[in-house]
Amino acid sequence: MKVDFPAVMDTVRVGLLGLGIVGSQVAERLECQRDLVTERTGGPVELTRVLVRDTAKRRAYLPTAAAITTDPAAVLEDPGIGVIIELMGGMEPARTYIERAIDAGKAVVTANKEVMAHHGPELLDLAKRRGVDVYFEAAVGGGIPLISTFKIDLLANQISRIEAVINGTTNFIIDRMARDGAGFDEALAEAQRLGYAEADPTYDVEGWDAVFKLTIMSSIAFRGRIDPDEVHREGIRGLDPVDFRYARDMGYAIRLLAYARDHGDEVELRVHPALLPQSHLLAAVHDAYNAVVIEGDLVGSVLLYGQGAGGRPTASAVVGDVIDLVLSMRKGIDNRIAVDIARPIRVRAMADVRTAAYLRLHVADRPGVLAEVARILGDLDISISAVVQKQAMVEHAAAELVILTHPAREGDLRTARERLAALETVYAVPAFLRALTPEEAM
Ligand SMILES: NC(=O)c1ccc[n+]([C@@H]2O[C@H](COP(=O)([O-])OP(=O)(O)OC[C@H]3O[C@@H](n4cnc5c(N)ncnc54)[C@H](OP(=O)(O)O)[C@@H]3O)[C@@H](O)[C@H]2O)c1
Q1: Does residue 178 carry a pLDDT above 70?
Q2: Which residue in 141, 273, 360, 441 has its CB near the most CB atoms, within 10 A?
């Protein structure tokens, strides 16, 4: 049964699941800026109940009017509550609670990228059948208005490409490595000390967070269902400060790139560290900031930039969704800008993707080595764009050889890497990164 639309001036009651970093900022805005919310939704909005695990815990903001509970049913089954805001995070029980809320005819606002990346299509489908909405602006890019940009502002476009830096933690770490020559562990420790990285940083540094965000954005941009497990993913743990120096000398910066490209019958989706020309918009994204460059056939290139995380920027997106949703409810409109993402989208196999590559080799310091390397690349139709050789950089009178290729098939680049590593004159291939060439960049 669907909760009835509120009459024009009726109070819309809201239940909040989670009162952590984002939840407490959302609660504060709803309670302390009641006039702003009332004015913008055309009537009162009341935060009625809040679900937590531990009622004794200290909070950045403790709601004054709402009841705090540890019983999910008290929120999910309250017939007076028309909107549920889910800010617990993680897959379960968040997914089940969202489903229960929709089933009970309540509209949902969530910031949960993990749930939306894996289960967005079926939750949106369920919501459509129940005649309610699910809003999830905060699930991608925190305070940066990305979902609404795809859902509304770029509706007239065929989106061809998305290039993004969408994980603040990894960008902070990469920035420290590039600026100060810090190693990965040192930069990570600083990020943790300053609150930019979790005690367990796996989710961010291994690229999962960026994959979930890219999946959600791409589902909406390309209008279909994408399995996040099919997105190619590499994290930043293997990055070495020396590669930042070589990249800079060749006119490039390194970023954790989230890349999506429409090929008509399939979509290319990948998250990995990449060399970007210094002139690329994403090369200028520093610290924990995020940026997304979108290419549409009508609009051309659009850049969105801002704070992709943090309690306040994320609460900005959550409360924005609540206001938008309540406004629609008051007007008696549901499924206002429904995005149909049920059509399955095929993801191009990484081996078939075309990309330029950066290879760093430890080679014997003797004549003929470069010719051997060039022959292996040439046999696979991989042409070289730049070469840097440093003598006696490493042990055993070896030299360090850095090669930047022109775009080639990823499968061939991997074969080349294996053949190079097998050469008697190549001691090691410590780095293999992808690159965007200036010609390819938006
Ligand atoms: N933090 C950010 O910058 C950011 C940015 C973008 C999106 N998000 C997303 O926003 C959501 C919330 O993130 P957050 O950083 O605010 O998380 P958080 O600080 O860890 O807060 C989670 C809250 O949920 C409650 N909770 C968790 N599991 C629960 C359960 N099983 N039953 C009842 N309550 C439970 C916790 O209760 P207790 O406090 O009692 O333990 C806590 O209040 C996540 O989906 C996250 O991905 C966060």
Answers
A1: yes
A2: 141
Indicate if the alpha-carbon torsion angle 208, 209, 211, 212 is positive or negative: positive
Q: Are residues 193 and 239 in the same domain?
A: yes
The answer to whether residue 335 sits within a structural domain is no
Cα–Cα distance between 396 and 392 in angstroms, integer? 8
Tokens of 77: 């089954």
**What's the rounded Cα separation, in Å, for the pair 190 and 182?**
10
Distance of alpha carbon 204 from the chain centroid: 10
Together in a domain, 67 and 184:
no
Residue 18 Cα to ligand 1 midpoint, Å, equals 5
Domain boundary among 299, 330, 361: 330
Q: Judge whether 398 and 417 are in contact, CB under 8 Å.
A: no
- Domain extent at residue 358: 350-435
Taking only the tens place, the pLDDT of each residue in 380-409 is 999 999 999 886 555 566 899 999 999 999
Residue 399, beta-bridge partner list: 363
Q: Write a three-state SS string for 101-147.
A: HHHCCCEEEECCHHHHHHHHHHHHHHHHHHCCCEECHHHCCCCCCCH
Annotated active-site residue 213? The verdict is: yes
Pocket test for ligand 1, best of 50, 52, 211 (most atoms within 8 A of CB): 52
| Cis peptide leading into residue 93 (ω within 30°) | yes
Q: Which atom of ligand 1 sits closest to the CA of residue 59?
A: 39
Distance 94 CA to ligand 1 centre (A): 10
The number of domains in the chain is: 3
Q: pLDDT per residue over 408-430, tens digit each?
A: 999 999 999 999 999 999 999 99
User: Do residue 75 and residue 128 come from a single domain?
Assistant: yes
pLDDT band at 373 (very low <50, low <70, confident <90, very high): very high
pLDDT tens-place string over residues 253-309:
999 999 999 999 999 999 999 999 999 999 999 999 999 999 999 999 999 999 988
Between the CA of 397 and the centroid of ligand 1 the distance, in Å, is 53
Q: At residue 329, what are phi and psi to the nearest 5 degrees?
A: -60, -45
Beta bridge partners of 268: 261
What residue owns the CA closest to ligand 1's atom 12?
87
Between helix 113-130 and helix 94-103 the angle, nearest 10°, is 10
Same domain, 164 and 282: yes
